[in-house]
Write a structure and sequence with these properties.
244 residues, Rossmann fold, seven-stranded parallel beta sheet, 7 helices, 7 strands, 14% strand, binds NADP nicotinamide-adenine-dinucleotide phosphate
Length: 244
Amino acid sequence: MTNKILSGRVCLITGSSRGIGLGIARVFADNGAIVILHGRDKATLGQSLAILPESPKHNYIVADLNELEGSKKLTERLIRLHAKLDVLVHSAGILGPKTPLAAYPQKDWDEVIRVNLTVPFLLTQEVLPLLRKGDHPSVIFISSGVGRVGRADWGAYAVSKFGVEGLTQVWADELRGENIRVNAVNPGGTRTQMRAAAYPEEDPMILPTPEDVAPVFVWLARADTNISGQSLEARDWIGRDPAS
Ligand SMILES: NC(=O)c1ccc[n+]([C@@H]2O[C@H](COP(=O)([O-])OP(=O)(O)OC[C@H]3O[C@@H](n4cnc5c(N)ncnc54)[C@H](OP(=O)(O)O)[C@@H]3O)[C@@H](O)[C@H]2O)c1
C-alpha cells in the first residue's frame, strides 16, 4: 500500500454534502484519509459518498446543525463510528439574507450566528475527547474575506466570520499545550451554491472549484504541520503540492 500524506487520518468535515466541504473531502480521500461526510440530507450524502475514492472506507452522518442538540447528535454518531478524530474541518455554513443591518430580521441573525459560529464552538467542545485521542490533531475553521473587513449588506454572515477568526485564536491558545492545532482558512470566492446565491450575476466558471482550494486544507490536516492560531488564504495555495 502506498503511504499517502493523510493515510489513516480520521477526518470529519461538516457541510460536506456539496460545495467546499465536498471538495475537501474528495481531496482528503485521494490523499489516503478516512473521511466522515456530514449534511442534512441522507440521499445527497449517499451520492456524495459514492464519488469519494475508496468509498467503502468512508461514512456520512446526517445532522441539522440549526436544531437544538444538532451538534450533540453529530458527536454521538461520530463516537459510534470512530474512537479518535485526527482532523475536524468546520465547513457547514449559511449565507443568510444580504440585507442592511437596519432591516436585518432577528430570526435570520440568530440562525446565521448559530450555524456559522455557535455550532462550530459547541462541536469543537463536544469532540475534544476524540481529538485528544487523535494523532497530532488539527482543527480547521472556515472564515471569509468579510470576516476580516466588514462590508455593507453582509450582516450576520460577516459578523459570524469575524467571530470565527476570534474563536480560532482562543481555541488555538487554549489547546497549544495539548498539541492540538487550530487554524482558519479563507477559501476566497469559490464555485459553489453559496457563492452563486451571493453573486447571482457572476459567471461561476471564472471561479476556482472546491477541489482547487483544497491544498491548504490538506497541508493543515497533515500530522507534521506545526502552525496554530493562524489565518490562511486558500488562494495562496492553489496549484501547490501540499505534500512538499
Ligand atoms: N463559496 C465561497 O465563495 C466561500 C467564500 C468564503 C467562505 N466560504 C465558506 O465556506 C464554507 C462552505 O461554503 P460553500 O460555498 O461550500 O457553501 P454551500 O455550497 O452552500 O454548502 C454548504 C454546506 O453546509 C451544509 N449546511 C448548511 N446548513 C446546514 C445545517 N443547518 N446543518 C447541517 N449542515 C448544513 C450544507 O448541507 P445540506 O444543505 O446538504 O444540508 C452544505 O453541505 C462556509 O462556511 C462558507 O461561509 C465560502
